[in-house]
Design a protein that fits this description.
The protein is an alpha+beta fold and 314 residues long. It folds into three domains: 90 residues, Pseudouridine synthase, CATH 3.30.2350; 133 residues, 2-Layer Sandwich (Pseudouridine synthase), CATH 3.30.2350; 70 residues, Roll (Archaeosine Trna-guanine Transglycosylase, Chain: A, domain 4), CATH 2.30.130. The chain is built from seven helices and 21 strands. The strands form five sheets. Strands 1, 2, 3, 4, 7, 10, 11, 12, 13 and 14 form a ten-stranded mixed beta sheet that branches. A five-stranded mixed beta sheet has the order 17-19-20-21-18. A hairpin with an 8-residue loop joins strand 2 and strand 3.
Length: 314
């Protein structure tokens, strides 16, 4: 006899305004307890010192996490010039200092070099695995951490203000895998100084924006979200930009059993909107739902069929 899962079958997204000092895992655990959900996950880690948008998936929404993680992200942050730290943020130990303080004009002249595709070495204190171990665990144990550079993309970068000689406030729009801490470290070196991130806030992940984010309230050692279920968003919230199609009852049954369905002419016309060639549709992901809007599956277009690769069991 199968063991009954603990918690309730709650499905959807909760956009949390992560407070400073909590890890992303702690936030996910708190949200899971608030909703008494059987399963929970998140779309992209925020460091304990960071605040802002942390998208928490509950139940079947966890199957859409990869789509949210692939989305563009916006960060607003403060660079502190003159101190390099081993973690590249304010929580680390100072490893070197510099008397050089870049001017606003120098920073703005340097910015174009840090927009576009960049080769970036992740911070030693990161969740990247090295021979099966998290890099930050090795770094905390004093082990040398050597991470390979990777190509990331910064689509936009703006200098918002320079409140004093030691600090500059930026905003960037970037793709998956971009580390703000590495970006600040590298631009500081290019400016002839050293630096680290002293404040960091994520303001957007795809369609999840900070105006949608709800704060966690801590009272008497327990965490609450006032009127919690009013803030539970549909599973499809993470699928912004993915074609959506309504399917019939019999097709929904086939899809939920893991079987493909043939594409009807009217469905094909919907899918091909915005695509000039049919060949370009191969491998395209499509969100399938019932006429009532209930999620059915995520499917892939292949050989005239829609083949499910994620089925929603609601």
């Amino acid at each position: 006899m199968a063991r009954r899962k603990k918690g309730q079958p709650v499905h959807g997204w909760v956009i949390v305004d992560k407070p400073i000092g909590m890890t992303s895992t702690q936030v996910v655990g708190a949200v899971r307890r608030i909703y008494d959900a059987q399963k929970a996950g998140h779309a992209g880690t925020l460091d304990p010192m960071a605040t802002g948008v942390l998208a928490v998936a509950l139940g079947e929404a966890t199957k859409t996490v990869p789509f949210a993680m692939d989305a563009e992200k916006t960060y607003r942050f403060t660079a502190h010039w003159g101190e390099a730290r081993d973690s590249d943020d304010a929580e680390g130990k100072v490893t070197s200092t510099s008397d050089v303080r870049p001017s606003r004009a120098a920073i703005e002249a340097m910015l174009p070099r840090f927009i576009g595709e960049l080769s970036q070495v992740p911070p030693a204190y990161s969740a990247i695995k090295v021979q099966g171990e998290r890099a930050y665990d090795l770094a905390r144990e004093g082990e040398p951490v050597v991470l390979e550079p990777r190509i990331v993309e910064v689509l936009e970068a703006r200098l918002l203000e320079t409140p004093d000689a030691d600090h500059a406030v930026f905003e960037i729009l970037c793709g998956k895998g971009t580390y703000v801490r590495s970006w600040v470290r590298d631009i500081a070196l290019a400016l002839g100084t050293v630096g680290h991130v002293s404040q960091l806030r994520r303001t957007r992940i795809g369609g999840f924006t900070e105006d949608l984010a709800v704060p966690l309230e801590v009272e008497g050692g327990s965490v609450h979200i006032p009127a919690a279920f009013e803030h539970l968003r549909p599973i499809s919230t993470a699928l912004d930009g993915i074609p959506a199609l309504a399917v019939t009852g019999p097709d929904a049954v086939r899809l939920r059993s893991g079987n493909p369905i043939l594409i009807r002419p009217n469905q094909f016309a919907r899918i091909t909107e915005g695509h000039s060639e049919t060949d370009g549709l191969q491998g395209l992901s499509v969100f399938l739902h019932t006429a009532e809007g209930e999620p059915v599956a995520l499917a892939e277009f292949a050989a005239g069929e829609l083949r499910p690769f994620r089925v929603f069991n609601l």
